[in-house]
Amino acid sequence: MKVLVPVKRVIDSNVKARVKADQTGVDLANVKMSMNPFDEIAVEEAVRLKEGKEHHAAGTATEIVVVSIGVTQAQETIRTALAMGADRGVLVQSDTDLEPLAVAKVLKAVVDEEKPDLVLLGKQSIDGDNNAVGQMLAALLDWPQATFAGKLAIEGGKAVVTREVDGGLQTVSAELPAVVSVDLRLNTPRYASLPNIMKAKKKEIAMKAVADYGVDTADRLKVLKVTEPPKRSAGVKVADAAELVSKLKDAGVL
Amino acid sequence: MAVLVIADHDGSVVRDTTHKTVTAALALSSDVDVLVLGKDAKGVADAAAKIAGVRKVLLAEGDAVAHGLAEAVEATVLPLAGNYDAILTPANTDGKNFAPRIAAKLDTAPISDIVEVVSADTFVRPIYAGNALETVQSADAKKVITVRPTAFAAAAEGGSASVESVAAGEAPKTAFVSEEMVKSDRPELGAAKIVVSGGRALGSAEEFHAVMDPLADKLGAAVGASRAAVDAGYAPNDYQVGQTGKVVAPASRAPSSTWPG
Predict the structure, then answer these.
(1) Which residue ranges form the domains of chain B, and what is each CATH number?
(2) pLDDT tens profile A169-194
(3) How far is it, in rounded angstroms, from Cα B8 to Cα B85?
(4) Is A165's CB within 8 Å of B71's CB?
(5) Which residue, A147, A248, B17, B213, is the most exposed by fewest CB within 10 angstroms?
(6) Alpha carbons A75 and B132: distance in angstroms, whole number
(7) Is residue B94 within 8 angstroms of chain A, CB to CB?
(8) Rounded to a whole number, what is the distance in Å from the CA of B10 to chain A's nearest CA?
(9) How many domains does chain A have?
C-alpha cells in the first residue's frame, strides 16, 4: 500500500503568534517554523504502517511519499518527514499561502500522479485552523473520508478509523483508497535519530511548481484585516469555598 | 438570498447550537430553512420548526445521514444547494467533517468557525489557536460556513414553520461500525453556562473524579479538563477544552488547577 502524507510548514507550536501592527497578518519574520504538529502525527502513523509497529502488520505501507506546498524552505519540513522514515518527497513550490480549496486541488493533481491507496494528513494546520483540506481532497477525488482519527487499522482493503467526535468516539470503515485526517491522540511522533537524519539527506525531493499542475488556485477569500483578540481580564483568587460561592452568586451563575 | 442551516441534534432534542447558528443565518438573510438529518427524527424536525425566524424545515431520514457520514450528508445537501446562497452549520465535529466536503463539491471556499457576521459576505474567524482574528470577505456566490456557536446568542422559540421531507443521501464506500458515547447527566461542555475545569495537579483519575464530579454536580456545571490532564489519562478525551478540544464560553469558569493556556 502506498501512502501519501501532505505536510505543511507552519509557525512552531511553542511560539506565540503576534499580529502585525499594520493588521495585514501574523508576523512570521525570524520566527521558528516547524512541521504542523498534526501532520507530524500523520507521518508517524505512516511510518508505523510501514514498520509494523503497534497493531499494524509489517509492510502494511510499502512506500511513503511526503508532499508539501509552500516556499523553498518547506524542503526542511519534508526532510524532517524523510528523517522520520518517509521514502521520498515532493515540494510544490508556491510563494503565496494557498487557501484550503486551492491546496486540495493541487493535492488532487498530485494524487492523480502518485496514485496512493491512502492519504494521511493532519486534521488542521495550527496557523489557519481551517480543518478543511482533507475533507475537500476526499470530495474532489470522490473518495471516502475518515476525519479526526484517534485510531487507525488497515483491514481487508479498508481503513477502520475510530474518530474523536463530540461526546465520545465513532468508528467507521472506509474503502481504500481513502483520505484519513488524524487527531492528537493517534500516536506520539518520534524524534528522528542522527543516522536517520543523515540518511534523509540522500533521499529524493522532487521540485515542482503549482503551475505544473494546471489547476485554479486563485484566492476566493480576501483578508481585510487581522487583529488581536480582546484581552482577557485576569482571574481572581478566592480564599475559601464560601467566598467562591458568594462570587458566583454575584456573577449570577448560581 | 436564502440560507440553509444544517441542524445539530442528538436524535431526540435539537441542540441549542442549532438555535445559535440560526441567529448567524438570520444576520445574512430573513429566509432561513433548517435541514434535519437523522432517523425517526420527525420530533426533531417539529422542534426545529418552532425556532423563531425559521421559514421551512427539511427532513432527510436515513441510516447513513443519522450517523453523520460526510459522504451521505454531501449527497443529501448537493441537490438542495441550488436553492440557497449560503449553507451554515455549527462548527462541531459533525459540521467540521461534512461542511468542507460540501464546499469542495460546490467549488467554494469554506469559511470555518466564524465568530461574527460583519455583512452578507464578510466574516470574522479566529486563527492561530485564537491568538488572532481574521476578517475575510468571500468572493464566492455560494458560501459554506461553520459557525462557532458560543459566539452567537440562541434564536428564541416561537416559530411555526412547515416540515417537508427530502431524500437522504447514501455513503456507498463508508460504513458506520460503532460508537461509544460518554453518557452524562451534566450539561454539555460546549454549551454549559458553568464549567469546572481540572488540571494535572489533581494527580490521578480517581482524584480528578473525586474532586471534580461532586463540585460539578453541586454547581450544575459541566466538567472540563486541560490537555495535560487528558494526556495523563485523568479525564476522558472529550473533556478537553482548547484548540484541540472544545471551545467553551461559560458565564463562569472555576478552574481547580488548570494551567492557563
Answers:
(1) 2-166 (3.40.50.620), 194-255 (3.40.50.1220)
(2) 999 999 999 999 999 999 999 999 99
(3) 20
(4) no
(5) B213
(6) 27
(7) yes
(8) 10
(9) 1
Residue of A138, A140, A129 lying closest to A161 (CA atoms): A138
Q: Tell me: the pLDDT tens digits for B169-216?
A: 999 999 999 999 877 778 778 777 788 888 888 999 999 989 898 888
Q: Where in the sequence is the domain holding A33, given as residue range(s)?
A: 2-251
In this predicted structure, what is the pLDDT of residue A250? 83
CB A3 within 8 A of CB A64: yes
Q: Which residue of B has its CA nearest to A128?
A: B127
Return the closest-CA partner of residue A6 out of A107, A86, A145, A93.
A107
Strands annotated E in A176-245:
178-182, 205-209, 221-227
pLDDT of residue B65: 96
10 Å CB burial of residue A145 (0-12, 13-18, 19+) is buried
Phi-psi region of B197 (alpha: psi -120 to 50; beta: other; left: phi over 0): beta
Hey, of B63, B98, B179, B253, which one would you mutate to test binding to chain A, going by the most A CBs within 10 A of its CB? Answer: B179
- C-alpha cell of A131? 480543518
A194: enclosing H helix or E strand: helix A194-200
Interface of B with A in 97-156 (CB under 8 A): 97-105, 107-113, 122, 126-140
Using DSSP, state whether B184 is helix, strand or coil.
Answer: coil
Model confidence at B85, in pLDDT bands (50, 70, 90)? very high
> The domain spanning residue A133 has which CATH number?
3.40.50.620
The verdict on B185 touching A (C-beta cutoff 8 Å) is: no
